[in-house]
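hey can u check if this looks right to u? its 142 residues, i copy pasted from the old doc so theres a chance i mangled smth
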Amino acid sequence: MNTNSAFYIGRGHLVCQDYVISGQSDDACYVILADGCSSSPDTDIGARFLVKAAESFIYQIQVGPKALPSLERYHQQSVQFASLSSKFLKLDPSCLDATLLTIKADKNGFVASCYGDGVIALARKGTNFPGKAKLVPSITNG
């Protein structure tokens, strides 16, 4: 599998408050994205901290039946690590006001997670999801 990513600044923003990274190991690939809150200070830096911290813990995510406990641990450790980084630079804690989205895939399937106030929508060609979709609440930090 191959992964790639890009992010673009919105027309009304002077600084892009989003950050995304993708990668792969021998047995899995991933994409991690942070969408920073435009009303909080320094979320461009906070989004990078969150993504880089999350990438450090991506190995913890299990694809399959044990996904939820592994995601809880992954989110908790990622946010704690990003928080330490922001404190080290004496940034306002609100610099981490962002939604963290993660997708990890291996030969058995994939797991997608949302930490914050975002949403993940799945679509498949030829499939009518409204009424068939299974909604799973995201793990939030609030």
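Residues 137-142 have pLDDT under 50 and may be disordered.
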